[in-house]
Amino acid sequence: MTPDPGLFETIHTLRAMRRLKPDPVPDAVIQKILAAGTCAPSGQNLQRWAFLVVTDPAGKRFFGERYDHWMRDRFGSLLSHVNDPTPDGRSMKAAMHLSEHLHEAPVLLFCCGKRDWPFVVPAESRVGLAPPSYGSIYPCVQNILLACRGLGLGASLTTMHQMFEPEMHEFFGIPLTHGVVAVIPIGYPQGNFGPVRRAPVETKTHFNRWGQGKPGLAAPTL
Ligand SMILES: Cc1cc2nc3c(=O)[nH]c(=O)nc-3n(C[C@H](O)[C@H](O)[C@H](O)COP(=O)(O)O)c2cc1C
Questions:
Q1: Percent of the chain topping pLDDT 70
Q2: pLDDT tens for residues 180-191?
Q3: Atom of ligand 1 at shortest distance to CA of 198?
Q4: Residue 218, Cα to own-chain centre: how many angstroms?
Q5: 216 exposed, middle or buried (CB, 10 Å; 0-12, 13-18, 19+)?
Q6: Which domains occur in the chain, in start order?
Q7: Other beta carbons within 10 Å of 122
Q8: Does residue 92's CB lie within 6 angstroms of at least one atom of ligand 1?
Q9: Is the Cβ atom of 158 under 6 angstroms away from ligand 1?
């Protein structure tokens, strides 16, 4: 595998890389990854992203303990499948490996988004905290994942922090003006990159009218 794969090889091999080496990731590399993130589009080009780069062992331990607790709580019965010799079993095993070793990841990248009510929510319904503008942060998150892959770094998108986000605000001093959209553990991969496992695109594609197929393009499964 070349260290700088082409765009389509990068896209087609962008798997969650959950087994990471402890080797540190240089700040210049993190900066390059974040710069790629900020090339993403955002609504009205408001660029409402903000990043918290966590390398401090105490911060990683705080986060890792809570993440692992909630992974076990939420996945419950599925955990009995971690040794199944199936793709889902292997995926669950990798997810639990990450969960147990999260505090050892060289970098935890918190991708935050400024809170903002979507246009569709009427003024009278705007009660409490607005959600972060997810749609404007996820393209940035995807660019970050692509940049990591392009630089030969392992990364994965995680969201289990939603179970304990208020504690994160307090511990890390994140203001309530922002929400944490995704947490990306980053490091050099222990394993190899390989093709992603996805349903054929035709099964997800409709032509002209929902449910309608077209040979060679659309064969939707309903
Ligand atoms: C919105 C979202 C939330 C996710 N949350 C988690 C998570 O909390 N923990 C985790 O290990 N993976 C998480 N993932 C990664 C997916 O489980 C993973 O991408 C998917 O199973 C496909 O595997 P692959 O990326 O290796 O092909 C999340 C992905 C998305 C898009």
A1: 99
A2: 999 999 999 998
A3: 27
A4: 29
A5: exposed
A6: 7-191 (3.40.109.10)
A7: 8
A8: no
A9: yes
